Amino acid sequence: CKSKGIWDNTYLFIVSDHGFAPSPKKVNLGRLLVEKDFIKFNQEQKVVDWDAYAITNGGNAFLYVNESKKDTPSANADTATRLLQLFNSLASTPGSGIDRVITPDEIRERHGDPKAVFAIAASPGHAFSPSFGGSSAVYTGGSVGHHGFPEQSEAMQASLLIVGPGIEKKQIAKAHLVDIAPTVAKILGLVAPAHAGKKLLNP
After folding, report:
1. Rg of the chain's alpha carbons, rounded to an integer?
2. Whether the predicted pLDDT of 44 surpasses 90
3. pLDDT tens-digit profile of 56-107?
4. DSSP letter for each residue of the chain
């Protein structure tokens, strides 16, 4: 922009979509579910039956029961109870990598998947993996950091830098991604449609 002579009329936004937390330790939820008999392998190391599984995203994971077994609703209820007992116990065990259980009501409040039996949050320094491998359910290795932790975590705060003519030097508190579009619309002199965000710059 400077070489083109337009820098003085240019607005630059640098935006990240999430934060990043150090997590050198991993919790292999797939292996844990195998160890606790929720997933069964044959001698060829192929899955032959399963009652529960986990979908992971860094510091959060959602737990599900096998809905294909709809003809045995009582069995599914028993599976859900056993899962909850397992992770409630792990959440109170130092070194398990499980910080807490997230209830179905909390999942709905946070617009998560309502089909999940519950969700779990990783302890500081840990992240979840769906892997069946490894010598133990908790190990050190792999990626050194992850996202996907609860939004209350300070490490999950995203980065935002805005530079341009007339923008004063200050810190913007509690900006959200949905605030970017109405802010850009204001700079361009456009009327933004109905949106959930707010303008981040002064009038």
Report:
1. 23
2. no
3. 998 999 999 988 876 666 667 889 999 999 999 999 999 999 999 999 999 9
4. -TTTT-GGG--EEEE-SS--EE--EEEEHHHHHHHTTSEEE-TTS-EEEESEEEEEETTEEEEEE-TT-TT-HHHHHHHHHHHHHHHHHHHTSTTSSEEEEEPHHHHHHTT--TTSSEEEEEPTTEEEE----SSSSEEE-S-SEE----TTSGGGPPPEEEE-TT----PPPS--GGGHHHHHHHHHT----S-S----S--
Structure tokens at 138: 């908790």
Q: How many CB atoms lie within 10 A of CB 49?
A: 11
Cβ contact 88:101 at 8 Å: yes
Amino acid in the structure at residue 189: G
Rounded Cα gap, residues 88 and 52, in angstroms: 16
What are the tens digits of pLDDT across the range 116-154? 999 999 999 999 999 887 778 888 877 788 887 777 778
Residue of 22, 14, 15, 17 whose CA lies nearest to 155: 22
Structure tokens belonging to residue 128 = 């979840």
